[in-house]
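Might you be able to review the protein record set out just below?
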Amino acid sequence: MAQAKSAKLVGDEVQEFIPPEPITANTPQLEQLLATGYPNIRTVENARQIIKERDGNPALYPFEIYQQAKAFLEAFTTNARVVSTKPGWKRKPGR
């Protein structure tokens, strides 16, 4: 996919700006991004381990950590979906 380029004036120089690639599901970039939002879960393997161990013995992890691990995995594997901002009665058929 071709990226749109633009230029930015910094002092007397013109610097080329290339926007970053989008972060998609099941990538190391998304895993790192999610790890910043979920400090108790560092990796996908760690989230899977927490879920597996807590299913076997609920005393090992608090329920909040278990929920965070499930949310981490769900966010990691979910693809983005386009949601229309127009209510159904205002949309044209087929759009």
